[in-house]
Design brief:
Elements: H1 3-70, H2 73-95, H3 100-128, H4 133-255, H5 259-289, E1 298-301, H6 302-320, E2 323-328, E3 334-337, H7 339-356, E4 362-370, E5 373-380, H8 387-390, H9 411-421, E6 426-430, E7 436-443
Parallel strand pairs: 2-4
Antiparallel strand pairs: 1-3, 4-5, 5-7, 6-7
């Protein structure tokens, strides 16, 4: 399994564990809170009913005594209403889910209430029948008042019990929350410990991978540095013998006595020029990557520069039967740049276009203005470049695998570095079967153009 896959799976597992833990914590807290609220609500409702029942019993006692003393019909109705409310409160309390103790206390309340209401009913009936007030008062004190005290005590015991029960439930809820919090903290601690363990494992793996990557990077840098050094030494040392070969081939071409000798000499001269281009490209790459790339800027006429590059490749285009032309959309543009380097960029791009354009095709070099910049475009009618290759064509040593087309893979890399060293931008657009379009931009500068300098010989750039 790849390290990246392990890392993703490990952190996905950690996130899943944390998510499940948080979900469980929230669910458990919600469940406990709901249970505690339900318990407390039931106990507080029962306590409220018991307290109201006690108040109602006191009202029954007081209104009953007042009626016995006065015989007022309105007070009689009050007595009846108070007794009805007492019965309603007792029925509501009877319907509550009471515990065994509360049920026993309520049974005592019911017994005391039945005894009290029975005697009170007798006294009220006697008062309505015209019984003597003095006798009723004595019976009230002797028979009814002790029963009212018993009822009140029973109700007080029930109320006190429910209040004590509520206090007990609050204490239990607090203890449950503390116990739950302790368990959840322990669970979170375990999750954090597991997360720290996973993080430690992957930190070690990351550290090991980083060290391996650094070692590989150092090795690669050393290899690249050694290769570039060798390239520089070889390229520098080859230039002298190559110059001698080119000079001898030129002399042999001029002094040859037969056409066959001249053809052989011309072939040697072409091969030598090709080798000189390769050596120059190698030297350019080495200087660019070493940061020693320098420019000699002058004011240039862009029209002359593009026409000169097109003229340099006109014989090669004619030999391949490819139409080549310069399309100057905005004449008279000037820029401040290194002339030889700009010709090298154009040679690479035009040479590439000719290399991949089939017989009967077209290659166009265009110049146009874009704000304070100029844009040069090289268009061809070749096979085009696929999107997967388009992002890599300016990479060093990248080559398009086209049968019969050879290259070093350095031409576009060098062109890109030259354009960017001038502060410009280079890019390509293409679709398979629709040809390729290469563009690069340079800053415009006012002023008269510089006379055309010595032309560079046509070069064979690297492949797309």
């Amino acid at each position: 399994m790849r390290f990246e896959t392990k890392l993703k799976l490990g952190y996905a597992l950690l996130v899943a564990v944390l998510s499940i833990t948080m979900a469980f914590t929230i669910h458990r807290l919600s469940s406990v809170a709901d249970e505690q609220v339900e318990w407390l609500r039931a106990e507080e409702r029962a306590a409220t009913l018991a307290e109201r029942l006690r108040w109602n019993s006191e009202f029954v006692v007081s209104t009953g005594r007042a009626y016995l003393l006065s015989g007022d019909p309105d007070l009689y109705r009050e007595v009846e209403n108070a007794r009805a409310r007492f019965d309603d409160r007792a029925d509501l309390l009877r319907q509550e889910a009471l515990g065994s103790t509360a049920r026993q206390l309520f049974k005592e309340v019911e017994d005391a209430a039945d005894s009290f209401l029975e005697v009170q009913g007798q006294l009220v009936a006697a008062r309505r029948d015209g019984a003597d007030e003095g006798g009723l008062a004595r019976r009230f004190d002797a028979e009814l008042f002790p029963r009212s005290v018993t009822l009140d005590r029973a109700l007080r015991r029930l109320v006190d019990y429910k209040e004590a029960r509520i206090a007990e439930l609050y204490g239990r809820a607090s203890a449950d929350r503390a116990r739950l919090a302790g368990g959840l903290y322990a669970l979170l601690g375990m999750v954090m410990f597991a997360g720290a363990g996973i993080a430690w494992v992957f930190a070690r793996l990351l550290g090991r991978s980083y060290r391996q990557e650094q070692d590989a990077l150092r090795t690669a840098r050393d290899a690249v540095a050694a290769r570039d050094e060798i390239m520089g030494i070889v390229a520098h040392d080859l230039r002298s013998p190559l110059g001698a070969i080119t000079m001898r081939a030129t002399m042999l071409h001029r002094q040859a006595d037969s056409d066959d000798t001249r053809r052989q000499a011309a072939s040697i001269e072409n091969v030598a020029m090709r080798m000189e281009y390769l050596i120059k490209s190698m030297m350019d790459v080495v200087t660019m990557e070493a940061g020693r790339f320098s420019l000699i800027r002058t004011s240039l006429s862009v029209d002359d520069l593009v026409r000169e590059a097109v003229e340099l490749f006109a014989p090669l285009a004619a030999a391949k039967q490819v139409h080549i032309e310069a399309l100057i959309k905005d004449p008279g543009l000037e820029t401040h740049a290194d002339r030889e380097r700009m010709l090298q960029v154009l040679a690479n791009l035009i040479g590439n276009a000719l290399k991949f354009t089939p017989q009967g095709g077209h290659v166009i070099a265009s110049v146009e203005r874009q704000g304070d910049q100029l844009r040069i475009g090289i268009f061809d009618t070749g096979p085009g470049i696929s999107s997967q290759h388009l992002a890599h064509i300016f990479d060093r040593f990248w080559k398009h695998d086209t049968p019969g087309v050879k290259g070093t893979g350095l031409g576009l890399f060098i062109a890109k570095n030259i354009v960017e060293a001038h502060g410009g931008r280079i890019w390509a657009e293409s679709e398979p079967g629709q040809g390729a379009r290469f563009y690069f931009t340079l800053a415009l500068t006012p002023g008269p153009s510089v006379p055309a300098a010595r032309a560079m010989p046509p070069q064979s750039p690297g492949g797309e």
